[in-house]
Amino acid sequence: MAVTLKQICEEAGVSKATVSRVLNNHPLVSKETREKVQEVIQRLKFTPNALARNLSLRRTDTIGVLFPWIFNGFFSTLLRGVDSAASELNYHVITSLSHDAGDENAMASRLLKERRIDGLILMAPSLPADQIEELKSIDVPLVVLQREIADPEVNSVSVDNFDGGLKATAHLIERGCRRILAIAGPQGSLDSDRREAGYREALKQADIAFDPDLLIRSNFNKETAFTSFENFRRRFAMPDAIFCFNDEIALGMLKYLKTIGVRVPEDVALIGFDGIEFTEFAELSTLTMPMQEMGRQAVRLLIKQIECKEKRTAEQLLLKGAVVERNSTRRRS
Amino acid sequence: MAVTLKQICEEAGVSKATVSRVLNNHPLVSKETREKVQEVIQRLKFTPNALARNLSLRRTDTIGVLFPWIFNGFFSTLLRGVDSAASELNYHVITSLSHDAGDENAMASRLLKERRIDGLILMAPSLPADQIEELKSIDVPLVVLQREIADPEVNSVSVDNFDGGLKATAHLIERGCRRILAIAGPQGSLDSDRREAGYREALKQADIAFDPDLLIRSNFNKETAFTSFENFRRRFAMPDAIFCFNDEIALGMLKYLKTIGVRVPEDVALIGFDGIEFTEFAELSTLTMPMQEMGRQAVRLLIKQIECKEKRTAEQLLLKGAVVERNSTRRRS
DNA sequence: CTGAAAGCGCTTACAG
DNA sequence: CTGAAAGCGCTTACAG
């Protein structure tokens, strides 16, 4: 079997307490004994059992990350940020992909209640607000990622949607576009609302009147976006530019426009939002979120909470994205 | 604090042993006491502490997954398969992304030696064979994913590279191509060698002589592929078709050919290998691996090993991929 | 600076 | 069918 602390203390002729102190760099150990013990540890290739240690310490050095079932390059980049920050801070990461829409909470709270994790990062863009409240009530460190939350008591890190909407729109305006169609998300999505506010602000700054006909809605996927767009076209002329509130819609539109013989960017400029990998290949301009950094910040926030239980003042970080300019908004020559 | 087993047994007026038996559905508990205990468990909302349980049981119900640092949609799909299979079998998944090339082993063996995981899935396409041997020597359940392994004692699940190379090539031959350039991986890559063998077999079946000039090498990335390809072009005419041994190369070539005015598929047909998400958008035909299924099978294999320690007969699964036909190999009309 | 002892929260032979 | 007791492998006041 594996070497245990007990074998070390017997071999070194000291008590378990002493070995434990050496292991944890406790200052009150004489240099001699410390060295003697260390020698034995090395010789016997001892690695402490984390389970036992954690049971005593009542913590696990592990954080849970709850993903939506459908996750793409976008989420993997986020995960990369989470994992790298966690490992720098000596934490492990347990992932949990929710399988159907409903069981997100069940999985998360099981992990939490079984004490397998010290805290949770929630990456659930479409999780209803009341379920977030429910998890919050378990009273364990929690950070919501990639989603602006209205409740000020919930820690979150998200892209600054207002700023992003503003930048994307301003970028199009700079290119000379004035009739800018926005394909927004659904009613009630805070993310969409903030992007919309940014869109309006950019128009205002450029002295362009907001035209409600130029704001259509989707469910953040291409199917619903197409329906809305076809509807729009039956009634109105083609706009100068289209600002899609996420990349999936933008990529869909890129193909769709090609199909119906509309050239991008010559006839209409197109910009997305998110910055998924795909966009690079598709040469789609997009407002790129700092995904890896968002993952890293989420971990920092979470571990901060885990390690100082007292002051539970929630923070809500908004990280700024940047427009990555590609062919779809190239200046027309 | 959290409710513990002790509180349950006091409240129910039985011993800890009895509560434990109820928890684990041990048959030797009378119906009455079982019901009484269950009632208390429900009332006090007791969830057993997994740490304590695992320490007693000397296992963790957790498997580790070691990813390469650069991971894309391809690996996330694999992870999805791993996570879903694991959760069906009541296991948790700890991920560990290696940060620089060297520390893969260190991270994995730490997880293992600290007893945080019961077994490991290794997703390290480029990990040197000797490092795999090293991990193998820790003598803990291990499955290597997405990589054919020569050592018959190592469990692995991989795509059937020979079959894939054969199918991809046969697909091109069916399209009327005869001079088929293969952009292979590096010397010594078993994956590449197997794909090459499939390529040759397909040629043979079609009575096309193998031409060594039509097999060039890359390092499985586009930069090295370009260099090889330019080299090739200086000496030879454009082939009928190009079979790229992975999608990254194929996507790179797709753009590159466009740049130099070669039309796909009119002038040259193009097929990739892997089936990453990107290819769909790019309309690239590719030999698609059953990635999610590979992840699932890896978990099954691993858990099988974990749960019956006796018969350590290694299995090496080869799952078959399929050609997904898209525009890049469309029949010329 | 060091050790004996209790504790973390479960499980499981062993008796009865 | 049930309980007392030892054990899983660590940590940490408390004494000295």
What does this protein look like?
The structure is a homodimer of 333-residue chains. In chain A, α7 (129-137) links the parallel β3 (119-122) and β4. In chain A, 47% of the residues are buried. Chain A folds into three domains: 5-57, lambda repressor-like DNA-binding domains (434 Repressor (Amino-terminal Domain)); 62-160 and 292-319, 3-Layer(aba) Sandwich (Rossmann fold); 161-289 and 323-329, Response regulator (Rossmann fold, 3-Layer(aba) Sandwich), CATH 3.40.50. Chain A is 46% helix and 16% strand. The longest helix of chain A has 17 residues, at 291-307. Chain A is elongated. In chain A, the strands form two sheets. In chain A, strands 2-1-3-4-5-11 form a six-stranded parallel beta sheet, sandwiched between helices. Chain A has a six-stranded mixed beta sheet with strand order 7-6-8-9-10-12, with helices on both faces. Chain A has helices at residues 5-12, 16-23, 31-44, 50-57, 73-88, 104-113, 129-137, 161-174, 190-205, 222-235, 247-259, 278-282, 291-307; strands at residues 62-67, 92-97, 119-122, 142-145, 155-159, 180-184, 215-217, 241-244, 269-274, 285-288, 316-319, 322-324. In chain A, α5 packs across α13. Chain A starts with a helix and ends in a 9-residue tail after the last strand. Chain A is an alpha/beta fold and 333 residues long. The model of chain A has no long low-confidence stretch (mean pLDDT 89). Chain A is built from 13 helices and twelve strands. The interface between A and B is large, with 42 and 42 residues. β2 (92-97) of chain A pairs antiparallel with β2 (92-97) of chain B, so a sheet runs across the interface. The structure holds a DNA duplex (16 and 16 nucleotides).
